[in-house]
Amino acid sequence: MSAAVEEFNAYREKMNSRILEDNNKIIKRIFNLDTNAYMKGALDVKTKELLGLVASAVLRCDDCVKYHLETCYKEGFLKEEVVEALSIATLIGGTIVIPHLRRAYEFWDELEQSSSKDTVLKE
Amino acid sequence: MSAAVEEFNAYREKMNSRILEDNNKIIKRIFNLDTNAYMKGALDVKTKELLGLVASAVLRCDDCVKYHLETCYKEGFLKEEVVEALSIATLIGGTIVIPHLRRAYEFWDELEQSSSKDTVLKE
Amino acid sequence: MSAAVEEFNAYREKMNSRILEDNNKIIKRIFNLDTNAYMKGALDVKTKELLGLVASAVLRCDDCVKYHLETCYKEGFLKEEVVEALSIATLIGGTIVIPHLRRAYEFWDELEQSSSKDTVLKE
Amino acid sequence: MSAAVEEFNAYREKMNSRILEDNNKIIKRIFNLDTNAYMKGALDVKTKELLGLVASAVLRCDDCVKYHLETCYKEGFLKEEVVEALSIATLIGGTIVIPHLRRAYEFWDELEQSSSKDTVLKE
Amino acid sequence: MSAAVEEFNAYREKMNSRILEDNNKIIKRIFNLDTNAYMKGALDVKTKELLGLVASAVLRCDDCVKYHLETCYKEGFLKEEVVEALSIATLIGGTIVIPHLRRAYEFWDELEQSSSKDTVLKE
Amino acid sequence: MSAAVEEFNAYREKMNSRILEDNNKIIKRIFNLDTNAYMKGALDVKTKELLGLVASAVLRCDDCVKYHLETCYKEGFLKEEVVEALSIATLIGGTIVIPHLRRAYEFWDELEQSSSKDTVLKE
């Protein structure tokens, strides 16, 4: 994995653990919902991840965008599909979304590089 | 069509005409993009409409939600699919999305009633 | 109760029922959390209601503001306490909060009039 | 004046009086700043009003937009200048600004009609 | 004090000085209001700080959250009280608040460590 | 140029190139509009840049603020004019704009230092 992806995931997991060990019921349930909401239901998992990505982008939450980019990547989305989703987010959310689009592109590149590096390492 | 749906569409069309007859280039092109962005590309039309719906819901724009509910309805989405998309929007956007969820439900009911009425009238 | 307060509550309850009868698990749990989060815990109920009011005000959600104004009213808050909370919301959220402040004041007046009318009717 | 403009101003003034008679110091000072900030300084009054309009539009506050449209109108802005400012707001804020643009256009029309009616009445 | 807390405060103070030495009247008065609004009034200081924290959290302003966490810490709030306030913010503001919750937890840890270190140093 | 300004511009240009080489039509057109919208029209270029700055500030987009600060600087705005525009943004957007105001001040200082350094080097 690329250093940037690893660092993002490590911080996320470390702090999520800190939060959850506190046992605040409301927060724990929201975290729990956050897992359940993206499971297969009337809509399939891929569609839901894309919805999560676009909602995160228009709300301009870089960490949320990164998280959903990573799950979209794992779900096998092509870059052009992800970019098309982000283009809709940029149109709806306006040019203030562009700085987040730049960081999203950078993170996607990291995800692709991680993956090709992983492939090389495994061989 | 139900009175509420008709009124919404009539106002929307009347004012869009007023805006476009003004010939402001930037606005005209944004309106143009707003049509093109939802056309079939790497993603299909249905997925794109759902992305538009969820982005509108988390940004809490009632008119945008109504517009995308109507196109989702025309694209043949089942209510439970639309509700699942809106449930993700409510989780991501928080309980402040709930008042918009209430109005979205009301408008979807109007769309369903319009449609059944239309069917009756056509027979 | 004043007509405005009654109408607000009636619509809210009617649409909440419509939403909940749909049995979307995520939405039902969010509604459930929305009740639990304001119950006595480390913080008392009054403080929590005031937090809900201020969060609603800075996010400029009129319906959420009305809902929390009503619960604040029932919890026995004095008007000057509520106004002081709203003054902090206006400072943090800026002058774009002012139109929502106007509607909050109007709704509080309705709540006070409802109550005095109720008192008169009961006598 | 058109009924819509009059109603908007009357409600605004009535509720502002209600708010100010309460003597909350923070709110009173914010209202006071709201007057002073748009007075001539390093920037002229017209530029400041246009800044207020665009900020209100991207934050999607209809009442704030109406207020600044009215002051822009009184300051003698041409419609195409106001529309150009709103086009920048729509580009920066995205297509979710469009419903607010429709209502802004409608209000500007009311302002123009009010004015021509006033002219006729004065003659 | 921990390095992170110190750095945050140092930057904040340095830039606030830069801003205030410029003598822009509107900005100076807003800064002044920002001090006065949290002083004891109809509501006590602790409640007001908690309102500031929750408003900052739902508006997803990391620096504002840090500032109010520090004042809450100094006012003697227990962690579970602060977490309960943040749980309401996360419910109202949705899962996009979670990345800010992670950073809030990290900063609170810094505040607690600073304090225990200070105690050790003073002995 | 100062290191901070250079780094900001370099990243911006690098990632914009990455985005544009992808040939997503919607995004390319939005980028194109983003150039055209600030050209001379009914309003002059300087006014438009100031509108872009204030819209970016109330939407709390640091990168957008930096970009418009740089163009405002190049257009010859005096610091007190820019500060006055930002004071209106802070009033409209509230105290949550203040952390962005601090970073805006810091970036403006960088722009001024860059410029004086450039002058020295050219001599």
TrEMBL record, chains A, B, C, D, E, F:
PANTHER family assigned to the protein according to its UniProt record, in alphabetical order: ALKYL HYDROPEROXIDE REDUCTASE AHPD (PTHR33930), BLR3452 PROTEIN (PTHR33930:SF2)
Residue ranges of every copy of the Carboxymuconolactone decarboxylase-like domain listed in the record: 29-104
Transmembrane segments: none
Coiled-coil stretches noted in the UniProt entry, renumbered to this chain: none
InterPro entries associated with the record: AhpD-like, AhpD_core, CMD-like
Domain of life, per lineage: Bacteria
NCBIfam families, per the entry: ahpD_dom
Protein's name in the database: Carboxymuconolactone decarboxylase family protein
Organism: Aquimarina addita
